[in-house]
Amino acid sequence: MENTEPSSIDPNLYALYSSARKPRILLAASGSVSATEFSTLCHCFFEWAEVKAVVTKDALKFIDILSLPRGVTVYTDEHEWACWQRIGDSVLHVELQRWADMMVIAPLSANTLGKIAGGLCDNLLTCIVRAWDYGKKQVFMAPSMTASMWKNIVTERHAMLVDELGVALIPPVLKRDPSTGEHVESSGSMADNSHISATRE
Prior knowledge:
By secondary structure, this protein is α/β, with parallel strands linked by helices. Helices cover 35% and strands 20% of the residues.
C-alpha cells in the first residue's frame, strides 16, 4: 500500500484552548501486540493534553493499566453498559465523543479497521467511531498488523473507505516483520510513539 503522511492537526484547535484549557484527546487501543506501547504513548499525549483512554478487550492483554498516567481514566466495553440503567440515562460512547476534541487510535488492528470501514459498532471503541462528528473533529489512526495483512488488497480497500470519512492514517514504518524476521518497506509495524504524538504539530 502507498504510505501517505497524515495532515497535521488544525493549529486553531490549540489556539482556541490554549488560554482556557488543554485540548481533550481520546486515545484508544485495539487488539495488537503494539498495544504494549500504549502506556508510553499515553504519557506522551498527557504532557500537553487532557487524555481519556478507551481499550478493547483484546488490547487489555497487552496493556498494564497501572502504568498509565494518573489522571487518565480508562474505559472498556463493560463501562458502556455499567453507565446505563434506563431510558434517559447518558450513553457513554456519545458522552466520550462529545468530550473529545480529537481521537487517536493506536494501535489500529486489521480487525478494527475492517469494522470501522464496514460501519460496524460492536464494542465501545467502534461505537465512538460510528458516532463521531467527522465534519468538526479529527481522527488519527495508526495501523499495526503483519506485513501480509497490511499489503493485502482488502486492507487497501478498507483504508480508502476510512479516508473518505476524513480519517488520517499514520502509516506503518520500516521495521522487522515479526512473522518473517525480515525488514520490509511496508512491514505493518505501528509508527513510533514520537511520530504519533507529534501529529498535532
